[in-house]
Amino acid sequence: MLEGRLPRYYFHTENGDRIRDDQGEELAGVDAAREEAVTVLGEILRYRGASFWTTRSFSVIVTDAEGQTVISITARASDVAPEGWRLSEAGQ
Amino acid sequence: MNNPPPEPKIATLVGKLSMRDRVSPEEVAVLETILETPYKVAAGADIVREHTRPQHSTLLISGFSARYTTLEDGARQITEINVTGDFIDLHSLLMKQMDHGVVALTDCVVAQAAHTRLIDLTERHPHLTRLLWLDTIIDAAIHRQWLVAMGRRSGLGHLAHLVCELYLRLQAVGQAGELTFDLPLTQTVLGDALGLSTVHVSRLITELRGEGVVSWSGGRIHILDWHRLAEIAEFDPTYLRLQCEPV
């Protein structure tokens, strides 16, 4: 089966607690891993609610079969706007 | 009463229907007659294809199957997991065209009942008709609960709800032990059922295990703390209509 030849990616998470993914998932390539990383981030954050403000940060780190980081994605909570953001320029 | 035991092919269906209301020996005989010779369907194969117009309805005799819809990008949503004794497309008798497909999640054994014979059944056996109607109504109730879970339950609550539901449904057809049952489904399949990524499902299983609520390995689930599991799931079994009450 072709499926057996697909690369395997591991989706670890970090929000103070580090959860290591030992199982991984076979995906078509790095683009599919990027897509999956966003999905995982979105799904997990969906249920975090106010508790997200305890850690204020949540990352999904994707590694390949050799343990090399392929991509990572982070969502952050803050009391200030991202650098360079101005209300007057928003919503145009 | 000395009813002969129902033949294996309809034993689980009769067992399930009998739990909800008495099934007469005559009604058992009717079910026995309308169902044709069982055959095997390999895991991964469609039992009923989307958009086809089946001329018969199919009873799942053993294994697990799923109702599903596939989106254009290939994403699959499972809308119900079916277990032994489920009439998986009884509604095709009246719906005519399938609005979804049914796939074998494991190797399955199924038997068909021709629509012409089912129509005949509805004309001659009103009580048995109501029992089968109830079965399709319960399918709809299961869909409602899945909708609630999909939209509003937390990931952990959703997974816990599915475990509670499958345990009670398998228990109802004699396929579960004391707080334990086989669930030989991959995390990808569970993800398609829960509408969650495989990675998230894997984390949720770990979390449920970590809470000491279930042990889950090699496709076998042991519920270690039913009370806590039901609490996480906010599980109310009303929708499964497990009580015996005349229809």
Task: Describe this entry's structure for a reader.
The complex is a heterodimer of chains A (92) and B (247). Chain A is of the alpha+beta class and 92 residues long. Chain A has two helices and five strands, in the order E-E-E-H-H-E-E. Chain A has helices at 30-46, 52-55; strands at residues 8-15, 17-19, 25-26, 57-63, 69-76. The longest helix of chain A has 17 residues, at 30-46. The model of chain A has no long low-confidence stretch (mean pLDDT 89). Chain B has helices spanning 8-20, 25-34, 92-95, 115-124, 126-152, 155-172, 187-194, 198-210, 226-233; strands at residues 39-41, 46-48, 56-62, 65-70, 76-82, 101-104, 108-114, 176-177, 180-182, 214-217, 220-223. The longest helix of chain B is centred in the middle third of the chain and has 27 residues, at 126-152. Chain A binds chain B through residues 11, 13, 19, 21, 23, 25, 36, 39-40, 43-44, 46-47, and chain B through 154-156, 187, 196-200, 202-203, 206.
In terms of topology, how is this protein built?
The complex is a heterodimer of chains A (92) and B (247).
Chain A: E1 8-15, E2 17-19, E3 25-26, H1 30-46, H2 52-55, E4 57-63, E5 69-76
Chain B: H1 8-20, H2 25-34, E1 39-41, E2 46-48, E3 56-62, E4 65-70, E5 76-82, H3 92-95, E6 101-104, E7 108-114, H4 115-124, H5 126-152, H6 155-172, E8 176-177, E9 180-182, H7 187-194, H8 198-210, E10 214-217, E11 220-223, H9 226-233
Antiparallel strand pairs in B: 1-7, 2-6, 3-7, 4-5, 4-6, 8-9, 9-11, 10-11
Helix pairs in contact in B: 6-8, 6-9, 7-8
Structural class estimated from helices and strands of chain A: alpha+beta
Number of strands of chain B: 11
Low-confidence stretches of chain B: none
* Proportion of residues in extended strands of chain B: 15-25%
Q: Strand-residue fraction of chain A? A: 25-35%
Query: How is the quaternary structure best described?
Result: heterodimer
H/E element order of chain B: HHEEEEEHEEHHHEEHHEEH
Q: Helix amount of chain A, in percent?
A: 10-25%
Major β-sheet annotation of chain B: 4 strands, antiparallel
- Number of E-type strands of chain A: 5
Radius of gyration of chain A, whole Å: 16 Å
Q: How many helix segments of chain B?
A: 9
Report the principal-axis shape of chain A.
Answer: globular
Most residues in contact: chain pair: A-B, 13 and 12 residues
Order of strands across the main sheet of chain B: 2-6-4-5
Tell me the structural class of chain B.
alpha+beta
Please state the average pLDDT score of chain B.
Answer: 94
Ranges of chain A where pLDDT stays below 50 over 5 or more residues in a row are none
